[in-house]
Amino acid sequence: MKIVRDVYLVGSGQIRLSNPMDCHIYLIDGGNELALVDAGVGLDTGLIIENIRNEGFDEKNVRYLLLTHTHADHAGGCKKLKRAIGCKIITSDIEGKMLESGSEEDLGLDVAKRSNIYPKDYIFEHCNVDQTVKDHDIIMVGKYSIRAIIVPGHSKGSVCYLLDQNGYRILFSSDVVFFGGTIGLGNWPGSSLEEYRKNIGKLSNLSIDALLPGHFIWTLKDGQAHLNKAVENLKLAWVPPAWQHQHPHF
Ligand SMILES: [Zn+2]
User: Fold this and answer.
1) Quick one: which of 213, 211, 245, 214 has its CA closest to 41?
2) Does domain 2-233 have CATH number 3.60.15.10?
3) CA of 155 to the centre of ligand 1 (A)
Protein backbone atom coordinates (compact mmCIF):
# COMPACT_ATOMS: atom_id res chain seq x y z
CA MET A 1 0.00 0.00 0.00
CA LYS A 2 1.15 3.50 -0.79
CA ILE A 3 2.08 5.51 2.32
CA VAL A 4 3.33 8.71 0.72
CA ARG A 5 4.89 9.70 -2.60
CA ASP A 6 7.37 7.01 -3.72
CA VAL A 7 7.10 5.05 -0.45
CA TYR A 8 5.03 1.87 -0.07
CA LEU A 9 4.38 -0.61 2.72
CA VAL A 10 5.01 -4.06 1.21
CA GLY A 11 5.15 -6.12 4.39
CA SER A 12 3.74 -5.83 7.89
CA GLY A 13 2.69 -8.34 10.49
CA GLN A 14 0.49 -5.92 12.35
CA ILE A 15 -1.88 -5.20 9.49
CA ARG A 16 -1.40 -8.74 8.08
CA LEU A 17 0.12 -7.62 4.84
CA SER A 18 2.62 -10.45 5.34
CA ASN A 19 3.73 -12.86 8.07
CA PRO A 20 2.37 -11.91 11.55
CA MET A 21 5.94 -11.73 12.89
CA ASP A 22 7.15 -9.26 10.24
CA CYS A 23 8.08 -5.69 11.09
CA HIS A 24 6.91 -2.99 8.67
CA ILE A 25 8.77 -3.42 5.38
CA TYR A 26 8.93 -0.32 3.21
CA LEU A 27 9.69 0.05 -0.50
CA ILE A 28 11.30 3.25 -1.82
CA ASP A 29 10.81 4.05 -5.50
CA GLY A 30 13.78 6.02 -6.78
CA GLY A 31 12.58 5.92 -10.37
CA ASN A 32 14.97 3.64 -12.21
CA GLU A 33 15.77 1.66 -9.07
CA LEU A 34 14.13 0.63 -5.82
CA ALA A 35 15.17 -0.08 -2.24
CA LEU A 36 13.59 -2.01 0.60
CA VAL A 37 13.85 -0.98 4.23
CA ASP A 38 14.12 -4.24 6.22
CA ALA A 39 13.34 -7.80 5.25
CA GLY A 40 10.86 -9.29 7.72
CA VAL A 41 11.19 -12.56 9.59
CA GLY A 42 11.75 -14.70 6.49
CA LEU A 43 8.78 -17.04 6.79
CA ASP A 44 6.60 -15.46 4.06
CA THR A 45 9.10 -13.78 1.78
CA GLY A 46 6.99 -14.73 -1.25
CA LEU A 47 4.15 -12.56 0.06
CA ILE A 48 6.45 -9.55 0.26
CA ILE A 49 7.56 -10.08 -3.36
CA GLU A 50 3.91 -10.44 -4.39
CA ASN A 51 3.13 -7.14 -2.66
CA ILE A 52 5.96 -5.44 -4.56
CA ARG A 53 4.50 -6.75 -7.83
CA ASN A 54 0.97 -5.72 -6.87
CA GLU A 55 2.16 -2.13 -6.57
CA GLY A 56 3.29 -2.36 -10.20
CA PHE A 57 7.03 -2.85 -9.62
CA ASP A 58 9.49 -5.48 -10.79
CA GLU A 59 11.25 -6.94 -7.75
CA LYS A 60 14.42 -7.35 -9.84
CA ASN A 61 14.75 -3.55 -9.75
CA VAL A 62 15.26 -3.61 -5.98
CA ARG A 63 18.92 -2.68 -5.83
CA TYR A 64 19.36 -2.37 -2.08
CA LEU A 65 17.96 -3.77 1.12
CA LEU A 66 18.57 -1.11 3.75
CA LEU A 67 18.65 -3.12 6.94
CA THR A 68 18.03 -1.21 10.17
CA HIS A 69 19.18 -3.92 12.59
CA THR A 70 19.49 -7.65 13.04
CA HIS A 71 16.52 -8.65 15.17
CA ALA A 72 14.78 -11.56 13.47
CA ASP A 73 11.54 -9.71 12.64
CA HIS A 74 13.60 -7.23 10.58
CA ALA A 75 16.48 -9.34 9.29
CA GLY A 76 15.43 -13.00 9.24
CA GLY A 77 14.33 -12.65 5.61
CA CYS A 78 17.56 -11.10 4.24
CA LYS A 79 18.97 -14.30 2.82
CA LYS A 80 15.75 -15.38 1.10
CA LEU A 81 15.13 -11.92 -0.36
CA LYS A 82 18.70 -11.62 -1.59
CA ARG A 83 18.50 -15.02 -3.22
CA ALA A 84 15.13 -14.28 -4.82
CA ILE A 85 15.67 -10.76 -6.11
CA GLY A 86 19.44 -10.19 -6.08
CA CYS A 87 19.41 -7.05 -3.88
CA LYS A 88 22.53 -5.86 -2.07
CA ILE A 89 22.34 -5.80 1.73
CA ILE A 90 23.42 -2.58 3.41
CA THR A 91 23.67 -2.00 7.16
CA SER A 92 26.07 -0.73 9.84
CA ASP A 93 29.29 -2.56 10.55
CA ILE A 94 28.07 -3.84 13.94
CA GLU A 95 24.72 -5.11 12.65
CA GLY A 96 26.45 -6.54 9.58
CA LYS A 97 28.70 -8.74 11.71
CA MET A 98 25.67 -10.04 13.57
CA LEU A 99 23.80 -10.70 10.32
CA GLU A 100 26.73 -12.72 9.05
CA SER A 101 27.50 -14.76 12.14
CA GLY A 102 25.71 -13.58 15.32
CA SER A 103 24.75 -16.26 17.83
CA GLU A 104 21.16 -16.54 19.04
CA GLU A 105 22.27 -14.66 22.14
CA ASP A 106 23.94 -11.84 20.12
CA LEU A 107 20.76 -11.51 18.06
CA GLY A 108 18.51 -11.36 21.14
CA LEU A 109 16.81 -14.43 19.78
CA ASP A 110 17.15 -16.62 22.86
CA VAL A 111 15.47 -13.95 25.02
CA ALA A 112 12.81 -13.48 22.36
CA LYS A 113 12.10 -17.21 22.16
CA ARG A 114 11.87 -17.38 25.95
CA SER A 115 9.38 -14.51 25.74
CA ASN A 116 7.29 -16.44 23.18
CA ILE A 117 7.94 -13.84 20.49
CA TYR A 118 9.16 -16.54 18.08
CA PRO A 119 8.49 -20.27 18.04
CA LYS A 120 11.23 -22.36 19.66
CA ASP A 121 12.07 -24.01 16.32
CA TYR A 122 12.57 -20.73 14.44
CA ILE A 123 15.98 -20.67 12.78
CA PHE A 124 17.66 -17.38 11.88
CA GLU A 125 19.32 -17.52 8.47
CA HIS A 126 22.64 -15.67 8.45
CA CYS A 127 23.41 -13.65 5.36
CA ASN A 128 26.43 -11.91 3.84
CA VAL A 129 26.47 -8.12 3.84
CA ASP A 130 27.41 -6.30 0.62
CA GLN A 131 28.09 -2.83 1.95
CA THR A 132 28.39 -1.26 5.39
CA VAL A 133 27.50 2.33 6.25
CA LYS A 134 28.99 4.70 8.77
CA ASP A 135 27.09 7.51 10.44
CA HIS A 136 25.95 10.10 7.86
CA ASP A 137 26.90 8.01 4.82
CA ILE A 138 24.72 8.59 1.76
CA ILE A 139 23.19 5.81 -0.34
CA MET A 140 21.87 6.71 -3.79
CA VAL A 141 18.64 4.99 -4.82
CA GLY A 142 17.79 6.28 -8.28
CA LYS A 143 16.91 9.96 -7.94
CA TYR A 144 17.04 9.91 -4.14
CA SER A 145 19.93 10.19 -1.72
CA ILE A 146 19.32 8.51 1.61
CA ARG A 147 21.34 9.27 4.72
CA ALA A 148 22.21 6.63 7.30
CA ILE A 149 22.02 7.77 10.93
CA ILE A 150 23.39 5.25 13.41
CA VAL A 151 21.60 5.39 16.77
CA PRO A 152 22.66 2.64 19.21
CA GLY A 153 20.21 1.95 22.06
CA HIS A 154 17.62 -0.50 20.76
CA SER A 155 20.47 -2.61 19.41
CA LYS A 156 24.22 -2.00 19.20
CA GLY A 157 24.26 -0.59 15.69
CA SER A 158 20.67 0.35 14.78
CA VAL A 159 20.42 2.49 11.64
CA CYS A 160 17.71 5.04 10.86
CA TYR A 161 17.46 6.10 7.20
CA LEU A 162 16.59 9.66 6.19
CA LEU A 163 15.01 10.30 2.79
CA ASP A 164 14.66 13.92 1.70
CA GLN A 165 12.16 14.47 -1.13
CA ASN A 166 12.89 18.08 -2.12
CA GLY A 167 12.32 19.31 1.41
CA TYR A 168 9.71 16.73 2.52
CA ARG A 169 11.70 14.67 4.98
CA ILE A 170 10.99 11.04 5.82
CA LEU A 171 12.71 9.13 8.63
CA PHE A 172 12.60 5.34 8.71
CA SER A 173 13.11 5.13 12.45
CA SER A 174 12.99 1.34 12.85
CA ASP A 175 12.64 0.34 16.52
CA VAL A 176 14.65 3.33 17.76
CA VAL A 177 11.66 5.70 18.18
CA PHE A 178 7.97 4.98 17.62
CA PHE A 179 4.88 7.14 17.19
CA GLY A 180 4.32 9.11 20.40
CA GLY A 181 8.04 9.18 21.19
CA THR A 182 8.23 5.79 22.89
CA ILE A 183 11.55 3.99 22.49
CA GLY A 184 12.57 0.40 21.88
CA LEU A 185 14.46 -0.18 25.10
CA GLY A 186 14.41 -3.84 26.07
CA ASN A 187 15.99 -6.50 28.21
CA TRP A 188 18.09 -8.16 25.52
CA PRO A 189 21.82 -7.97 24.73
CA GLY A 190 22.68 -4.79 22.85
CA SER A 191 19.82 -2.68 24.18
CA SER A 192 21.03 0.03 26.51
CA LEU A 193 19.50 3.03 28.22
CA GLU A 194 22.94 4.62 28.40
CA GLU A 195 23.46 4.26 24.64
CA TYR A 196 20.00 5.76 24.07
CA ARG A 197 20.98 8.72 26.23
CA LYS A 198 24.25 9.17 24.35
CA ASN A 199 22.82 8.88 20.84
CA ILE A 200 19.21 10.09 20.77
CA GLY A 201 20.41 13.65 20.15
CA LYS A 202 21.27 12.61 16.58
CA LEU A 203 17.52 12.65 15.92
CA SER A 204 17.11 16.27 17.12
CA ASN A 205 16.73 19.13 14.64
CA LEU A 206 16.13 16.93 11.60
CA SER A 207 12.86 18.69 10.62
CA ILE A 208 11.23 15.32 9.94
CA ASP A 209 7.80 15.33 8.34
CA ALA A 210 6.97 11.63 7.98
CA LEU A 211 8.01 9.26 10.76
CA LEU A 212 7.85 5.68 9.47
CA PRO A 213 8.80 3.29 12.30
CA GLY A 214 9.34 -0.47 12.27
CA HIS A 215 6.08 -1.18 14.12
CA PHE A 216 2.80 0.50 15.05
CA ILE A 217 1.24 3.51 13.39
CA TRP A 218 3.19 6.11 11.44
CA THR A 219 2.63 9.80 10.78
CA LEU A 220 3.00 11.90 7.63
CA LYS A 221 3.29 15.28 9.34
CA ASP A 222 5.23 16.70 12.31
CA GLY A 223 7.23 13.51 12.77
CA GLN A 224 9.89 15.61 14.45
CA ALA A 225 7.53 16.22 17.40
CA HIS A 226 7.60 12.48 18.16
CA LEU A 227 11.38 12.40 17.96
CA ASN A 228 11.62 15.46 20.21
CA LYS A 229 9.42 13.73 22.76
CA ALA A 230 11.87 10.82 22.91
CA VAL A 231 14.80 13.22 23.24
CA GLU A 232 13.06 15.09 26.09
CA ASN A 233 12.02 11.89 27.91
CA LEU A 234 15.64 10.77 27.94
CA LYS A 235 16.61 13.93 29.84
CA LEU A 236 14.22 13.18 32.71
CA ALA A 237 14.93 11.16 35.83
CA TRP A 238 12.92 8.04 35.04
CA VAL A 239 13.32 5.23 32.56
CA PRO A 240 11.46 6.65 29.56
CA PRO A 241 8.32 5.04 28.18
CA ALA A 242 9.15 2.14 25.92
CA TRP A 243 6.84 0.38 23.53
CA GLN A 244 3.84 -1.43 24.89
CA HIS A 245 4.84 -4.64 26.55
CA GLN A 246 1.82 -6.52 25.32
CA HIS A 247 3.13 -6.20 21.79
CA PRO A 248 4.10 -9.75 20.82
CA HIS A 249 7.09 -9.00 18.60
CA PHE A 250 10.27 -7.04 18.43
ZN1 LIG B 1 14.26 -4.69 17.04
Assistant:
1) 214
2) yes
3) 7
